[in-house]
Design goal:
alpha+beta, about 425 residues, Rossmann fold, 24 strands, Elongation Factor Tu (Ef-tu), domain 3, 3 domains, six-stranded antiparallel β-barrel, single chain, globular
């Protein structure tokens, strides 16, 4: 398979009614990725459910539903061809309960659109969405101010929302001067694929043009091969098919791999038998590719979401304890030694205990403010020692940044986020 254009994974993030799905559906339709026929079907379905105008949103929902039924491997990801890229769109649901999917979703993205509904403007979750994007290491963020039709396409109202968002961006260390703000209406199709004729004042790009304004993702093919498992399906005639994104390295047919931690924590070895992306068999896949694979010697009970498929000669460490830099985002009281929340690392979820608060640090500079603080509160940054209460595959920021990040969740909220800096391996 020739690689005509580099792949770029783009996540759409935003509050539940900001209109992400509508923008995505409209982009698919106007760019020809979804056919007239398919759209007509969705429109009828939307009308049948009394949701007129929801047909664009249904494009993604319809995909989600098929994905849950396991109909095909890669429907979660839709492709759009732009001048420069093959774009894979990842839809990150906006509800609070979905934040955890978003963490795994966002961790796969090279760039992001933060979608804000013009009328509602900045929402309480906007801050959290930005933090998550930052923690996921996504530097390329554009802001789509959607539903401009509800703001009468007014430049003044657009600028007001833009100012509010600029403040939030600054709060998480994103330069709003360098951030592109787009004035769009997903429902009406303004500035999605076609330039709007209702906002002559707007000189910026359309959504489809903005894809090409994002820098080409740096391919992390020189690092050891790592593929966190998103799901493992049973496919008739093939067997067990783990699906996920190759985060770093190159995977080849015949390659010896190890699945870690696996059920036992010892991992299990196998050999890559087939690699498939978008219904095409491939000889090799590289960092950035979303694939479904089959591994000789690895069955359904050997592999699950949260495992990492690695190069057998350079396996990912299973950690006994680690040191990390964290930022407390949203803790109901204070975070102290002994606290044992769930850590979300790549696609895995493992309870981990804080065994030592080493130092509170200045989040901007990393300088020590206080050695061994008694507790940490919201917006504090710190170096901490952590002990997983289960098997955790993790790497340091230095060895593999993509495999070093995590977020900490408790009772449905993202309490803190961070990255691993030092590891003590399990022997």
């Amino acid at each position: 398979m020739a690689r005509e254009k580099p792949n770029m994974n783009v996540v759409f993030v935003g509050h539940v009614d900001a209109g992400k799905s509508t923008i995505v559906g409209r982009t698919m339709f106007d760019s020809g990725a979804v056919s007239e026929q398919e759209m007509k079907k969705l429109k009828e379905e939307a009308e049948k459910h009394g949701k007129v105008g929801f047909e664009f949103a249904y494009v993604m929902d319809h995909i989600k539903e098929e994905r849950e039924r396991g109909v095909t491997i890669d429907l979660a990801y839709k492709k759009i061809m732009t001048q420069k890229f093959q774009i894979t769109i990842i839809d990150a649901p906006g509800h609070r309960d979905f934040v955890k999917n978003m963490i795994t979703g966002a961790s796969q993205a090279d760039a992001a659109f933060l979608v804000i509904a013009g009328k509602s403007g900045v929402q309480p979750q906007t801050k959290e969405h930005l933090w998550l994007l930052r923690t996921a290491g996504i530097k390329n963020i554009a802001v789509a101010i959607n539903k401009m039709d509800e703001l009468d396409y007014s430049e003044e109202k657009f600028n007001k929302v833009k100012e509010d968002i600029a403040k939030e961006l600054k709060g998480v260390g994103i330069d709003s001067e360098k951030t592109q703000f787009l004035a769009v209406s997903g429902l009406q199709g303004d500035n999605i694929v076609k330039k709007s004729d209702k906002m002559s004042w707007y000189k910026g790009p359309t959504i489809i043009e903005q894809f090409d304004n994002f820098p080409i993702p740096e391919l992390q093919t020189n690092l050891p091969m790592r593929m966190p498992v998103q799901d493992a399906y049973e496919i008739t005639g093939i067997g067990t098919v783990p699906v996920g994104k190759i985060v770093t390295g190159v995977m080849k047919i015949g390659q010896k791999v190890k699945v870690l931690p696996g059920r036992t924590g010892e991992g299990i070895e196998g050999e890559v038998k087939t690699i498939e992306a978008h219904h095409e068999q491939m000889q090799e896949a590289i960092a950035g590719d979303n694939v479904g694979i089959n591994i000789r010697g690895v069955g359904k009970k050997d592999i699950a979401r949260g495992d990492v498929i690695c190069d057998a000669t350079k396996p990912i460490p299973i950690v006994k304890e680690f040191i990390a830099t964290i930022t407390v985002i949203n803790h109901p009281s204070v975070l102290a030694k002994g606290y044992t929340p769930v850590f979300h690392v790549h696609t895995g979820q493992v309870p981990c205990q804080f065994t030592e608060l080493i130092a509170q640090i200045n989040p901007g500079t990393g300088e020590v403010i206080k050695e061994n603080p008694d507790f940490l509160k919201n917006n504090d940054a710190a170096r901490v020692r952590i002990r997983p209460q289960g098997n955790l595959a993790l790497e340091t920021q230095k060895d593999n940044p993509a495999m070093s990040k995590f977020s900490i969740r408790d009772a449905g909220i993202t309490v803190a986020a961070g990255m691993c800096t030092e590891i003590t391996e399990k022997k």
